[in-house]
Specification:
The chain has 227 residues and is α+β, with helices and mostly antiparallel strands. The protein contains 5 helices and 11 strands.
Length: 227
């Protein structure tokens, strides 16, 4: 029955339009060219026009309803924000133990759970940047998120190893950044987060950009639509 509703609506709209078009066309033809006036041909033409207009109107109505439904869905879908907070310039980096920190926050929608991040390979593939997994993100306030730089092929770090190597994390991050072709103004890296939205697995992409001319991470991590 639900599939028949659009057909009934097309018929009803077409009848209403045809009545108006037929009446208007009849009056115009009788006034302008009464000798060529033919009721049957006029009726067929008006019927065709009415059905075409009715189908277009119905398509437009269905399209607007679809856009409205998609907008409502996107308004409740979890949306995360990721932001680097770091120093600028080689001198500032050299003088700091932790020249950059990353924060994550729950921007809108339902609360995401079981958040994990894909490893981010360096440009030449010798290293990967790996962010810590999170059980959930509830706070709209930025919260710190840990990360490590791992050499490709090396086993994952244990909690004890991470504490031991924390003092050298800046050097590893610089190795990650330097593992790139020369003369690039910006180093762009795709970071993909996966999380659960209730029982549905969702993903959101971020762009990490290191500006080599200013020697800093850009605060803008926008990477476009969700995957």
């Amino acid at each position: 029955m639900r599939n028949l509703r659009p057909i009934f609506r097309i018929v009803l709209i077409a009848i209403a339009l045809m009545s108006g078009i037929l009446s208007l066309a009849r009056e115009v033809l009788q006034i302008t060219n009464p000798a060529k006036y033919q009721e049957k041909s006029l009726f067929s033409a008006c019927l065709y026009i009415a059905f075409m207009v009715a189908m277009v109107l119905l398509w437009w109505e269905e399209r607007c309803a679809k856009i409205k439904a998609e907008t409502a869905l996107n308004d409740t879908r979890p949306r995360l924000g990721l932001r680097p907070n770091g120093l600028e310039g080689p001198k500032a980096w050299a003088e700091s133990r932790d020249p950059v920190a990353f924060t994550i926050q729950h921007l809108s929608g339902r609360a995401p759970t079981s958040i994990r991040f894909d490893p981010v390979p360096s440009k030449l593939g010798r290293f990967s940047l790996q962010f810590d997994s999170l059980s959930y993100a509830l706070s709209p306030q930025p919260e710190g998120i840990g990360f490590d730089v791992i050499e490709t092929g090396a086993p994952p770090l244990s909690a004890k190893d991470r504490e031991t190597t924390r003092s050298g994390r800046k050097e590893m991050l610089e190795l990650f950044l330097n593992d790139s072709p020369e003369n690039l103004t910006n180093l762009d890296y795709l970071l993909v987060a996966h999380f659960m939205d209730g029982t549905q697995l969702q993903s959101q992409a971020f762009r990490l950009r290191f500006e080599t001319d200013r020697y800093r991470f850009s605060e803008d991590t926008t990477a476009g639509d969700e995957k």
